[in-house]
Structure of Type III polyketide synthase:
Amino acid sequence: MSQLTSIATALPDHKISQEDVLAVLAKARGSALPARLKQILGNSGIDHRYIARDPDYYLKQRSWPERAQIYDEVGRTLAERSAAAAMVAAGLQPTDIDVIMMISTTGTMTPSIPSRLIESMGFRQSVQTVPVFGYGCAGGILGLRLANDLADANGGQNVLMISLELCSLSYDYSQFDKKNMIATALFADGCAAAVLTGKGGRGTGPSFRAFDQKTWPDTRDMMGWTIGETGFDLVLARDIPTFVTKDFTPFCDAFLAEQGLEKSDLGEPACHPGGGRVVEALEGYFAPELSGIPATRDVLKHHGNMSSPTVLFVLEKLLSDNPKKPILMTALGPGFTSVLGILDPQEQVDE
């Protein structure tokens, strides 16, 4: 298993509070929000988050080419910023990187963003680029799993993994059903980059122990995209907090048992938060052995649900406190899929 050398994050310039979001929704709707809906949207666990454009931009009709242009412009800027910071933190130059891998489900380009970074950031012309589309909210951990495999390949490689999502590009105020309003009240934009290495002489930094993934049958309607007139249209159909309690719990129990771990053996987990009710369901699963998941709550409060990068924001926060116990990583995403991982804060060395 490879070592996680660094994580760095980046955010777009436009900050918006949850109160501002509710006001924008009411403005777009042309009337005040129903009291019950306003209560649901206001209890998301989010205080503020960041989006690619100022709020008024999203009240206008936007074509698919316009959305693609923003993905190129803002997305590439965030990717470069987080990648540069992650490499500095890892003590590496762009020429030291063997693989650039990018996870994204809110936009796509050909040539891909990793390919476009080669010249602008000074990577070797022989660097391998691996753009990955479709993981959604599970992409942060699924991306780490793939990056780990790539880092262990060819006798050991340095892998730069970028997780980029501009969820605001899917906002559609021409549709005022409950699904779209909830999505508008939850999702945000952000980017994270991580450097993993499988090379020798790495020291004793955090290292991955194991990963697992499960996709449940007949659950494709829970989360995903359909192709609409102006871009990706969100699919968000079922009660995910109930799914956490009923289906995620036994899967996670079995994974921990396979690793010889009890919940009491763990440090604070790094969870993709989803939304406020998902966080509550996860806290219920970990209790009473673990008192809560404050880092997950804090990232949701200050950044919203950024899809795939969100769990990397949580992991960055946890690692800054120099944890001593294994970190369980959890995420749920389209499929419907759950992915789990274990990160040991210090590399396990045989006596």
